[in-house]
Amino acid sequence: MPSSSFMVREITDLVAKSNPATVVEFGAGTGVITRELDNYCQENQAKLLTFEKDDKLRDYLKEQFPHLPIFSDALYLPKVLDEQGLTQVDCIVCGLPFTLFPQELREQLFDIIYSTLSEDGALVMYQFSWHMRKALKQRFGSVELNFIPLNIPPAFVYYCKK
């Protein structure tokens, strides 16, 4: 189910708070958040790199956003950054279902996220439970948690800084 306008607004407000030159989106799905990130990036001359692993959703995103680079797997972020001539990103928006992943994959993804974020970079991560809070607090110096009840299902949006 696509994200509600309340959650999309919360996410884009948090992205804007980090004033990014480069934004990465993991788990773009149907592109509801992608659309607002794209608008933000175009208005602020920022670069947006979008990742979606599902082939059908990725094809749909490529049709909806032909001007955006859409990549297949978040694990490829370091390689993609190298190909794009980038070393780090300022903001990562992540909607991947971390609680469903094996611990090893979670650790891999957290390592990639943390290592590719700039020193002032931010992770904006939305989940449908608060269970990732402890893992995020172990990695990031600052973790804010916002509850979005007007979303189906209700969501938690984390704002994490190194």
UniProtKB/TrEMBL annotation:
Family annotation (CDD domains): AdoMet_MTases
Protein name: Phospholipid methyltransferase
An individual GO BP term: methylation
Presence of keyword Lipid biosynthesis: no
Domain of life: Bacteria
Annotated signal sequence range: none
Record SUPFAM superfamilies: S-adenosyl-L-methionine-dependent methyltransferases
Annotated InterPro entries: SAM-dependent_MTases_sf (IPR029063)
Keyword Kinase: no
Keywords recorded for this protein, A-Z: Methyltransferase, Transferase
GO function term, MF aspect, one: methyltransferase activity
